Amino acid sequence: MSRSARRAPRAAASALAAVLIMPAGALTASAADLDPTAPPAADVEAAGPAGVGAAGAAGGPTAADPAKTGTAAPAQAAELLAAARAAGLQVPQLDLDPLTVPELQERIGRGGLTAEGLTAAYLQRIHDVDPQVGAVLALDPTALEQARASDAHRAAHGARSPLEGVPVLLKDNIGSAGLPTTAGSRALLGNLAPDASLVAQLRAAGAVVLGKANLSEWANFRSTSSTSGWSGVGGQTRNPYALDRDPCGSSSGSGAGVAASLAQLAIGTETDGSIVCPAATNGLVGVKPTLGMVSRTGVVPLSLEQDTAGPLARHAVDAALAMEALDGTDAADPATLERPADVDTSFGRVVEGNGPSLSGERFGYWTLTPEQSAAVDDRTEAVYASAVAALQKAGATLVPVQLPDQDAVGAGEGLALGPEFERDVDAYLGGLAPEATGAAQPKTLDDLIAFNIADPVELSLFGQETFTSAASGPRADSPQIATARADARRLARAAIDTVLAQGPGADDDLAAIVSLTNTPPDLISYQNRDGEPPAFVYASSTPAAVAGYPAVTVPAGFAGPADVLPIGITFTGAQWDDVDVLGYAAAFEAAVDARTPPKLLPTAG
User: Fold this and answer.
1) Catalytic residue (one of 4, 228, 274, 515)
2) Distance between CA 26 and CA 227 in Å, rounded?
3) Residue 393 annotated among the catalytic residues of the structure
4) 149 in a domain, yes or no?
5) 40-69 tens-digit pLDDT
6) Which listed residue (226, 250, 252, 515) is catalytic?
């Protein structure tokens, strides 16, 4: 969940419907807080109390330096590369940023590149760049072995899918065999969970699981004053466009890592804003699918009423190919069994150029109220206006819209998420096997709270009041919470459905709703300023999140100091309209081409 969306029920203004997507104004850093150009600290602290393995936290934050950036992943990359070079591998010199998955497949197909070489190139990039960004939490030690196996399979049988040999990072709340799945928490460093269903699908498609990406701990749901991109396991992830800036969250490392070309793709998760916000803030395409399009089995939950996984990518075609692999039903996830038999899953159309055109389509554009406009900087408003103009230039008709009942949607979501988190995380923890050391895993939210109190790092920067509130509040199956959830979902779906159906005939309908995804990211800080009013922007992620409808963000331009901080726009569509919504985003990307690579600037100014 994006930090801003989680904070919204505390805001005086209009709950979730009238709070920011980026935590603008909520955090401030001074020069003394951090030196983004400094190398990561060399000290390595054991992962925590006795019985918790150190491997997952090696090189991560310590009690003496809880805010540090970087883990042992760059050093691990160096070890893997040294072994590969000793075996004769020459690491190719590639400009990774502009390369799409289809372009990579073409190079591999004609013999100019191998999956092993591509994976090695990304490992080299992690070694060189991640000490400044801190996006990669841990590398899979078998990454190069997976790549060699992919090359062998291609030679013997051909490619299994367009993702054959493509390196992918996983947000560290997604199970991956052989690596801890921690949700950023030191309490779960012993959680050697098996592959999540979506990871099994990626492997079946031939993708290379490169490793785990850092995240905002517990999907930004532990505290109202948490900092996006920080976890007790991975420390602080930074925005590669300006290293003193917030990467948003909670899929922080997924966004920053792909933006900095540390992987071709990453898989994140979203409850409300946690894919689209870090994607937009890091200049990426981010896909929040319809609830039930992608299995959640093996993913650490926040609330199964809203949780979904989806890709973050530098290119819309890559996101489409990822969705092609991720889509599917799963008997262990009932939400995936609710899809209609005729749902369109032809994501390949987007790659082949046969996706929907902007020309002739009608889009609603979510307008800023005067109060919102007064709080948004002029440059961000100009980016949004330019995006609307670009859609019109491409032949689309734009209709101004406002979504109704967003105060009530946000209030209901805010009331329900805590009890649902306790229910769903207790169910997840209750199914964990003992650690490899034989120590017991935490089994309940109360166990996590107790662990954090005893741990030297977890509560060093902010507290866990969201945890304690969830543990002491009403249960998810209480009439109060069940009604709040049902009402919020009903109102969110009705708001989108009503706006999309503009008139009596099909020609009056809107193809999608366009909105501003984010405002410029704030400075990283650990100084809580919850008492100060935040900047005021509608939470464009919330309607789709609560409704369970698809939303795709795409780069639209730059704002902030010196215009170096990415801004995105979101396309939100009807339930199960995922292919067309992603297609509209891809068409906008082609028309505007707003993305430029990050330069790892120490500051935006």
Assistant:
1) 274
2) 10
3) no
4) no
5) 333 333 333 333 333 345 789 999 999 999
6) 250
Cβ burial 478-503 (10 Å sphere, 16+ → b, else e): eeebeebbebbbbbbbebbeebbeee
User: Domain with 302 in it: what CATH number?
Assistant: 3.90.1300.10
Number of domains in the chain: 1
Which whole-number Å values give the CA distances from 147 to 66, 106, 151, 164, 352, in the listed order?
35, 16, 6, 9, 26
Q: Does the active-site annotation cover 295? A: no
8 A C-beta contact, residue 468 and residue 450: no
**What tens digit of pLDDT does each residue of 365-402 get?**
999 888 888 889 999 999 999 999 999 999 999 999 99
- CA separation for the pair 181, 106 (Å, rounded): 34
What pLDDT score does 57 carry?
Answer: 57
Range of the domain at 489: 3-69+160-592
In this structure, is residue 458 part of a structural domain?
yes
443-496: pLDDT as tens digits: 999 999 999 999 999 999 999 999 999 999 999 999 999 999 999 999 999 999
Instruction: Say which of 4, 150, 171, 254 is annotated catalytic.
Output: 171
Which phi-psi region, left, alpha or beta, contains residue 99 (left: φ > 0; alpha: ψ -120 to 50)?
Answer: beta
Bridge partners (DSSP) of residue 256 are none
**Position 89 in a domain:** no
346 is catalytic: no
Task: Evaluate whether residue 601 is within a structural domain.
Answer: no
Q: How far apart are CA 466 and CA 539, in angstroms?
A: 20
Q: What is the pTM of this model?
A: 0.92
